[in-house]
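Note to self: keep these together.
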Amino acid sequence: MSYFGALDIGASALTAQRLRMDTISQNIANANTTRTEDGTPYRRRLVVFEETSQGIPFSQYLSASSRERYLAKGVKVSRIVEDASPLRRVYDPGHPDADQEGYVEMPNVDVVTEMVNMISATRAYEANVTAINTTKSMAMKAIEIGR
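Structure:
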């Protein structure tokens, strides 16, 4: 793998983890939203990752062997799905969205779980930044050897 391949992999991971952090932030922000545009309580969203192959455009390949050598793998967000777990029912008869029995359907967002996921996404983001910086450092050392 080339230096650029390692940088491409790190960059794809940074993009994916940033979207994951944005989705987690949206979940936390809507932890008490009982009515969305479609009239139902907010449902927690989850990011689904999948492996992707990124490569140099075909026009830049010199031969079939160089094509495989410079093909880099990475990660991308394949989709964002709604969590199908049941909504919480909370007794609050004064709430405008309460039913006849006084219960309100609340979002299926657990703020503690979301914070743990946010820490995980932040650590993964930091690890990828470290990998990119290490790759840049290795490239700079290789240039110094050539002097």
